[in-house]
Hints:
mainly alpha; 3 helices
Amino acid sequence: xxxxxxxxxxxxxxxxLLQCQLYVELNPVRAKMVLYPAQYDWSSYQHNGLGKPxxxxxPHPLYHGSGLTNGA
Length: 72
């Protein structure tokens, strides 16, 4: 019954990992829940884009090496 509802895709490249993270962080904007990703409090953007500490978040080393962060 639920076999086709949820699909799993392997993140097999560094570029795809960054694309997935960007998709997740911008999804509240695309869904018109907020105008800017910083306005959505329950997103990793709070850490990755604004540098706010989030105790349950462990950033991938690739993300910090990409130059996409604010240096946090």
